[in-house]
Amino acid sequence: MQERKTQSISDIIRERRSIRDFKPDPIDKDVIVSLLNDAVYAPNHGKREPWRFILFEGEGKKTFAEAVIDTYSPEQREKKATDMAAYYQNIPYHLIVVMPEDPRQKKWEEDICATSALIQNFQLLAWEKEIGVCWKTNLYSLEPSFREKVGVEPGEKIVGVLHIGYFEKIPKAKKRTLVEEKLVTINE
Ligand SMILES: Cc1cc2nc3c(=O)[nH]c(=O)nc-3n(C[C@H](O)[C@H](O)[C@H](O)COP(=O)(O)O)c2cc1C
């Protein structure tokens, strides 16, 4: 593990990386719940707190893996089902974050913004504890069979599937464009 001296929010924001290679080392569920209890201080319009969580641990990760693999074509199944099942089992937690799909566009947009803010809060809080996260929006999230198997209710939207675990090494930062190149200032 590289030694990291994280101090400020800006350090954590800049340092955080999406983690795809996890150590299997267990993480206490209380830690995850505690991070989520901080993350819910995300801004949310109308104080709707539009999120709900489905956490997979232990044997539950098999349910998650089967739900994903069941969406594969026969060719995909042949090619990668075994590897993916092992990959998912090796990661300490999978967390599905859902929100209600409000038919009113304004509320739907506010709710996805709030839930995304919550997810980023969670990623940053986890990073502070040297826990890595990858936020996934793979197409399986849209498949009715997957949704049903993992307990997503009709009328709910999966905003993210988060894989959570300690990381082996920090991937290289992907550079961001300087804001000066994207900033328009209007002052008259
Ligand atoms: C809404 C959203 C959806 C994402 N979906 C995926 C995904 O399906 N698969 C994946 O590998 N990474 C996904 N990511 C992670 C991005 O690929 C990642 O943030 C980007 O490559 C920048 O890398 P960094 O997070 O390490 O800075 C997603 C990120 C966001 C914000």
TrEMBL record:
Positions that bind FMN: R16, R17, S18, H45, W135, K136, T137
SUPFAM superfamilies for this protein: FMN-dependent nitroreductase-like
Signal peptide: none
EC number(s) given by UniProt: 1.-.-.-
Cofactor note: Binds 1 FMN per subunit.
InterPro entries tied to this protein: NAD(P)H_nitroreductase (IPR052530), Nitroreductase (IPR029479), Nitroreductase-like (IPR000415), YdjA-like (IPR026021)
Family: Belongs to the nitroreductase family.
Name of the featured protein: Putative NAD(P)H nitroreductase
Species in which this protein is naturally found: Alkalihalobacillus trypoxylicola
Lineage of the organism: Bacteria, Bacillati, Bacillota, Bacilli, Bacillales
